[in-house]
């Protein structure tokens, strides 16, 4: 066992800050790395020491594994936390780190390698009793053979890149006549995006839910599950709203999924924090999708309902400590929601919207947590993921977590760029969401850009209200006096609520 004294966080933005906060609480010194685009970022200021890696593109900065290891040697760092994205699921990097005599805060390179390939992962878990989506168990290259297998599985099917990730590298094929073209595209995309053209076929589950299980394993063979996260609200196969627990998972289903997830972890001798993703069909049958061998973006909702700090757990596990609790000690406390606030324009196909954060005020109050990596006045760089912040709420139950989230969205003030805040408000207020009766098709089924115009945001209403006051006063040709008030009738309740002017 070796106590970590100085930790380098090989990441940026909200996750770098979030990791450093836990490290500080543990009395560990922190080192930030950054690109030229992130010179003024909060994660750089927060760290005890910071080193510039190079120009903005991640291939010239955050992905420079050798340079990062060099920095560790120069500064006497003894451990690296990779966060998510970037080098976090790179087995070669994990190996280099360990070979350099440093601690990698994450699983072994072997676990990363097996689970980094969706095909190898399926093979590894096949010895265990874990349900898999019907499909091919190996890479498929021959078109005729592939067509034959697809027909057996039954359309619609999904062609998936074995090395895919981040919602990329998937193609739905509705019928046989489209198969050949889609297959060719899938292979060439997989080759160019992931440097590995291996693809396989899976039954496309038409109205699935995405439910995943958080696991923690130590280096002494103890593995527990920290319940589920429901992540079905997605756009482009990428999550936007997550919650724990799921509205549809019963205690029996939770136990079955949890035990399956522990099985997946054991199948690759997993230690550290990891996430086992499942796809769930309309009849609540669940199938193993993949394992993410790192801290997940949406880990805070699990922290809120379990009271565990997953980054501290990762650090303790990396130091060689045994878990100091068992499965029986874990309990679900209340309900938690997370929304990802992206710099994207929901009215324009969720295209990234880059610019300056002219106004940036975080919501506050009971049950609210904001994990972000920006300050007012900063530019959102074009080089990285367009996520600005994660807004997390915790409540005694689902209703409270939702109403708290809507309140927090209303209190969040962001101008200068378009964000997904209004979209999230729309989703949280939708009957399908409040009833819990939704799947990964939510956006496709219910969302058209004009729904956002119909329900004006509070901010816009405020602005309109202010304009209306001005108009009203001009019309009447009189100055606003303090003292008496009069409600101005209007169609909008917010107008009525706010427009208390004298007359
Ligand atoms: P999560 O379930 O945590 O959201 P994602 O698969 O969405 O996991 O990925 C988390 C982060 O890692 C995102 O910022 C995403 O853009 C990035 N990421 C994941 N896989 C890849 C990949 N293969 N190539 C590039 N970025 C990736
Ligand atoms: P990634 O590595 O990109 O995260 P996943 O295999 O986890 O890839 O799939 C991402 C998302 O794509 C899932 O959350 C789900 O919405 C959708 N998806 C994946 N596999 C299937 C399937 N067989 N049927 C229907 N949807 C799927
Ligand atoms: Mg996934």
Automatic annotation (TrEMBL):
Residues 122-319 form the ATP-grasp domain. Keywords: ATP-binding, Biotin, Ligase, Magnesium, Metal-binding, Nucleotide-binding. This is Acetyl-CoA carboxylase biotin carboxylase subunit. NCBIfam families: accC (TIGR00514), PRK08591.1 (NF006367). The keyword Glycoprotein does not apply. It comes from the Bacteria. SMART domains: Biotin_carb_C. Pfam families: Biotin_carb_C, Biotin_carb_N, CPSase_L_D2. PROSITE patterns: ATP_GRASP, BC, CPSASE_1, CPSASE_2. It comes from Algoriphagus kandeliae. Its EC number is 6.3.4.14. GO terms for molecular function: ATP binding; biotin carboxylase activity; metal ion binding. One of its GO terms (biological process) is malonyl-CoA biosynthetic process.
